[in-house]
């Protein structure tokens, strides 16, 4: 699909030839994940996480379908049906723990995948649409995970649903009506649980569809790589199969080993104890916290404590929380440096790691009760979060002196293995000259 | 344009959030409850295995049976265990006839031949019955407090097993200065609000006479019943760890083979780089 030297699919068996002239599915797979996809040969282990995310989704779908056979989406029995799965269904405890832990692992993998994209500039032209499709997947994942957490109908499920749908009530005029419409009532109840179950079952398949678009958009320009330099010729690539199928298999083994360790030895370590208490609309938990993967955004939501002019603090928090994600869609036009990889951007590389630290601190703040020092800490770091993307990144990408880029991927690989590079040109510096934003 | 818009939006959110950050904070008054609150005492549990890590370890059947006896003779006066069925007690090492005999001591709701509400002796298939018919009945009998069902109690509290043991042993007569117990509440620094409606359930060292001859102490009762309720909340704990160890071993072998094939597949590419 992408490069002229890509291996063409040659059916060998009679059945293969028969199918190829009728439904060329093997040809499609060959081009997408097989030997027909030339891939940069210098990808490091961080490039395993796309495949890991795909596997994590498949694990969620398979375990979820099995859980759905035993789960009852009705407020009177939902919690009991989960306990029925845990106690009476054969292997039910295993599928339920895999599904619950699997959600956390899916997010962990996707976060690493996103940060990898940030570090190596994978969102830059010509991969902007690929990046934005990934963000759509991320948004769908957040909606799916939130609704799935509600299905348990424990205390944190119920109060989480109340808090998150309550965010919409901050919108002026239409807010209350939107919240009522989302819940199907004035508080989380059976109508809420039913629609969340319906959507929780639907959205993973929507995610699956967007992933197909994401992979399609990946195959047009081909994968980015740690140098950020474009593929120049066949010497820069290896066929995806067997090179990256072998590497991904190994990476998948490591991932599944860690996953199994948590599922079997500490399945509740990532969850809240309060969610083992059945939902009680009359008793509010002392600390309502979402799952860990929402903590940075929860910290941003709660960081806005004072009204600004006529805008109430709650509305500011809600706008900021949504803006924190939506601004990522504009990143390809905010970071205009022609150098993709932070390996050749000394200043931006430091700022990247500062940003990672800021996200981690926001995560810690989001999991803590809304008291000092956590509130002030989340306020300072929220300010930095926005400043990073909206102020610092555009400026740095304009004025940064970048390092010389290697002429090609294969040259960089040779340099790494000890052979002096023939001519590290100043191409990178030249290319970093300021460019207008539009 | 994009960057100018971004600058405006960025400044807006930065100013809005930092405006909140520079506001003076109200002085936080000392919270005597928070200061009195204690974290659960950590002890080694057989079901947490070597190093108390939670990787290996099985329940001690004798301890589970003793814990069940404590639950039955003490806790079950007020607390139900409604997610556990009598048949599940086989995991404690009871035989079929023993389980039938245990179940027969309990009465469960039923209907008689005329369709009138009645009770009948429980069978192995029944769940341990509720103590009170509903929440209102429970609160009416318990001075307004609600004794929770204990089926999930060790998973519904952080560090549940240690918490439960500490709580059961944690009643103190001396209330710290600044705190006063309301009538009907008891001071227990391990409870989240440090005042608990439950009166001390374990009052004397020979309160329960163990069938297996183990010496009865308050510490022994609290430890045994905490293990029993850990089993009640997580009855598949042993199967989970066994499958876990087998899975990890399998995955390590597969991953090791995967690593070797990865190295073999890439040998020509990486080798070229090194030799060239």
TrEMBL record, chain A:
It comes from the Bacteria. GO terms for molecular function: metal ion binding; oxidoreductase activity; quinol-cytochrome-c reductase activity. It is found in: Membrane. It is a multi-pass membrane protein. Its main location: membrane. InterPro entries: Cyt_b/b6_C, Cyt_b/b6_C_sf, Cyt_b/b6_N, Cytb/b6-like_sf, Cytochrome_b, Cytochrome_b_C_euk/bac, Cytochrome_b_N_euk/bac, Di-haem_cyt_TM. Keywords: Electron transport, Heme, Iron, Membrane, Metal-binding, Respiratory chain, Transmembrane, Transmembrane helix, Transport. Binds 2 heme groups non-covalently. A ubiquinone binds at residue 219. GO terms for biological process: respiratory electron transport chain. Its cofactor is heme; heme b. It holds the Pfam family Cytochrom_B_C. Residues 230-407 form the Cytochrome b/b6 C-terminal region profile domain. Heme b b562 binds at residues 99, 200. One of its GO terms (cellular component) is respiratory chain complex III. The main subunits of complex b-c1 are: cytochrome b, cytochrome c1 and the Rieske protein. Component of the ubiquinol-cytochrome c reductase complex (complex III or cytochrome b-c1 complex), which is a respiratory chain that generates an electrochemical potential coupled to ATP synthesis. Belongs to the cytochrome b family. This is Cytochrome b. It comes from Sandarakinorhabdus glacialis.
From TrEMBL, chain B:
Binds 1 heme c group covalently per subunit. GO terms for molecular function: electron transfer activity; heme binding; metal ion binding. Residues 62-168 form the Cytochrome c domain. GO terms for cellular component: membrane. SUPFAM superfamilies: Cytochrome c (SSF46626). Its main location: membrane. It comes from the Bacteria. InterPro entries: Cyt_c-like_dom, Cyt_c-like_dom_sf, Cyt_c1. Keywords: Heme, Iron, Membrane, Metal-binding, Transmembrane, Transmembrane helix. Heme c binds at residues 75, 78-79, 198. PANTHER family: CYTOCHROME C1, CYTOCHROME C1, HEME PROTEIN, MITOCHONDRIAL. This is Cytochrome c1.
